[in-house]
Amino acid sequence: MSAWPSGYGRRVLASVDSTLSEAARIAPELAGPEWILAREQTAARGRRGRAWSMPPGNFAATLVLPVQESPGQAALRSFVISLALHDAFVAATGRADAFALKWPNDVLLQGGKVAGILLESVGAGAKLTHLAIGVGVNLAAAPGAAEVEVGAVAPVALTSALGTVIAPEAFLTLLAAAYARYEDQFRTYGFAPIRTAWMAHAAKLGEVITARTTRDAHVGTFVDVDADGQLVLETAKGRVTIPAGDVYF
After folding, report:
1. Which helix (H) or strand (E) holds 65?
2. Which helix (DSSP H) or strand (DSSP E) does residue 84 occupy?
3. How far is it, in rounded angstroms, from Cα 25 to Cα 41?
4. What is the pTM assigned to this prediction?
5. φ/ψ of residue 67, rounded to 5
6. CA-CA distance, 144 to 152, in Å (whole number)?
7. Is residue 4 part of a domain?
8. Which domain holds residue 228?
């Protein structure tokens, strides 16, 4: 079992509205990075304000991370946390073959969504002081079909898919240890090695996918993620670079 990483705080809450909301509340008082784990969330949220279902026994945590970079550079930590989740899953299950990373911020287990990531900035005015990295994992159970957006990847749970049973607190230790390793790499060497490692686990690389932004939908072959973390598609109209959006298979 991995040891808790030095320099990272840890607090476990029985119940909270949202670990992301709690992150914003406590950030000003923190001296360093801190993980918040909640056994229950009463107002959990996902990307674009979508509701996030959390059946009992599932994992909900947020890392509050002090940052000094530009918002664009800080946002690249979606790839850092994706890699950390991948390593935590492999450590828990021994099944590296079962997991893949879906741009921009999901982890897939045998093709189904097992984890999601949401980054939110914390700061006063235009100044970014902290990044809140929210993570939700279907450890014990997956949300029902009615709770999932139409066309989205179907959710799957770790227990039902692989038979792995792990408590949220134990999974947090695996995740925190893996994240600390990748964070050190990111701060020392930049995004390049993170991008290379992420691409090695990328779902649907070389295959035709659909990427939807708030304005358009693009269908093309997933060929790359560029140095800014943007999705690169080869479409019938040429190469398209997408800074933000949702991907559908």
Report:
1. strand 59-66
2. helix 77-93
3. 15
4. 0.94
5. -135, 155
6. 13
7. no
8. 208-248
How confident is the model over 64-122, as pLDDT tens digits? 999 999 999 999 999 999 999 999 999 999 999 999 999 999 999 999 999 999 999 98
Q: Among 28, 82, 44, 60, which Cα is nearest to 195's?
A: 82
The domain that holds 133 is classified in CATH as 3.30.930.10
Q: DSSP per residue over 186-235, as a string? A: HHHH-HHHHHHHHHTTBTTTTSEEEEE-SS-EEEEEEEEE-TTS-EEEEE
Neighbours of 100 (CB within 10 A): 17
- Cα–Cα distance measured from residue 146 to residue 90, given in angstroms and rounded to the nearest whole number: 29
Contact criterion met (CB below 8 Å) for 143 and 185: no
Whether 2 is in a domain gets the answer: no
Residue 76 structure tokens: 């690249």
Same domain as 212, residue 95: no
The CATH number given to whatever domain includes residue 238 is 2.30.30.100
